Amino acid sequence: MFTKTSAIDKNVYFKSVVGPGPKSYHSIETSYEKLPVTTLLSCDKPVYLSAASGISLLVVSRDLQGPFEKFILHGTIKVLPGTFYNLTSVSEASSINKKLAPFSTENETALHEAIEWEPIAPAVHISEIFTLYYQVKKAPYHFGPEQHRYCELTIVEQGKLETVIDGKHYLLRKNDAILYQQNQTHTQAVNEKDTTTYITVLFDMTLLDPQFFNRIFHLSSGQIAQIETFIRISDEDHFPYKNDHLIARLKLFILSLISESNPYPSKASSMKEKYDQDLAQQITEYIKENPEARVIDVTHHFGMSRSNIQSLFHRFVGMQPHAYIEEQRLKQAKILMRDSSYSLTEIARLVGYHSLPAFSRSFKNAFGYSPSSYAKKLYKQI
């Protein structure tokens, strides 16, 4: 990100001024294209530069060897004598008005190495999300090998999932994620008796950076919250700009896989933030493992007040604790229905409802259809 010249109070290169500069100075209109800076100019007297059209990038230095600083030209500046400078365009084309003093001498010097600049443009592009679904598998389960032209994100919620990518074995555990490239041969298998549940997202993405692939990422509490919000929005029928939200959130999550596994040096206050994040993750894990728990049970288990827990949920989960508990109960109910080993009455009891009617009301309020309708739909898909 570049700073506007008008936002700089004091520096050794230029000063922002009001007006176009002295009338006695000679005026020159100069146009620029999006090209590297290969030469630097310098003048023995002040030079006035005014933005005319488009967006121009100003490169300045006090020495031909650098260091070089970059600013967006905004308004009018007075370039100080002895400053090396030049401009290029950030937009497709731009123009400026330059004023030189009478009898001034301006020199142009070629650089040994051109000065390039990185445009603020995306390197990751997700054009479409094809599908998002839960998988509930028990041993022995094996799928593949397969390959397809789209990317695939797999996140394990519970249990263990074995995968082989181009002949190399990986073992994903709870809250682990892996990203398959386009046309990458892979398999998935469950070989232990415990039930494994995992999320699969299939999407079209342009991303060539190898550090995103062929590795397991263990998700932080923030990333888990990101995925839960992503899933929550995908279930909403009338969410404003739903598809844009889903694509933007998926892209943000994928970028977080690298940024959170290679963190920048943190501020001193981040130790408390990290502690709170870990605590929020412990609480959400407790709720997932104990779907019958109420908010008061959570407060007793963690020795915290209701208001402190609400504050943590507001910061790291984005919803109230009681709403999160309800969401996790119904989510677990859907998983158990896919397992097809339990009756609806048993499922209602397992996820913390005291009666089937109470479970049915909550389920229909959340999804718009009854548990029995959902179970019948699953049966037809088998």
Characterization of this structure:
The chain is built from nine helices and 20 strands. With 382 residues, it is an alpha+beta fold. The strands form five sheets. The protein has a five-stranded antiparallel β-sheet, with no helix packed on it. Helix 1 runs antiparallel to helix 2 (242-261). The protein folds into three domains: 3-115, Jelly Rolls (Sandwich), CATH 2.60.120.10; 125-261, Jelly Rolls, CATH 2.60.120; 271-381, Arc Repressor Mutant, subunit A. Keywords: DNA-binding, Transcription, Transcription regulation. InterPro entries: AraC-bd, Homeodomain-like_sf, HTH-like, HTH_AraC, HTH_AraC-typ_CS, RmlC-like_jellyroll, Tscrpt_reg_AraC-type_HTH. This is AraC-like DNA-binding protein.
SSE layout:
Layout lengths: L2 E2 L9 E4 L8 E8 L3 E7 L3 E7 L2 E6 L7 E4 L3 E4 L4 E6 L3 E8 L5 E10 L9 E13 L3 E6 L4 E8 L2 E5 L2 E5 L3 E5 L5 E5 L5 E11 L10 E2 L2 H15 L6 H20 L8 H20 L5 H8 L3 H11 L4 H19 L4 H7 L5 H12 L3 H11 L1
How many strands appear in the DSSP assignment?
20
Main sheet? 5 strands, antiparallel
Strand fraction band? 25-35%
Radius of gyration, in angstroms, nearest whole number: 30 Å
- Shape type: elongated
Assign a percent range to the helix content: 25-40%
Please give the CATH class of the largest domain: Mainly Beta
CATH architecture classification of the largest domain: Sandwich
| Strand order of the biggest β-sheet | 2-8-5-10-3
What is the total domain count?
A: 3
Element order: H for helix, E for strand: EEEEEEEEEEEEEEEEEEEEHHHHHHHHH
Mean pLDDT: 88
Subunit organisation of the chains: single chain
Class by alpha and beta content: alpha+beta
What is the overall number of helices? 9
> In angstroms, what separates the terminal alpha carbons?
53 Å
Unreliable sequence segments: 265-269
The fold-level CATH name of the largest domain is Jelly Rolls
Pfam family, one: AraC_binding
Protein name: AraC-like DNA-binding protein
Domain HTH araC/xylS-type: 277-377
Keywords: DNA-binding, Transcription, Transcription regulation
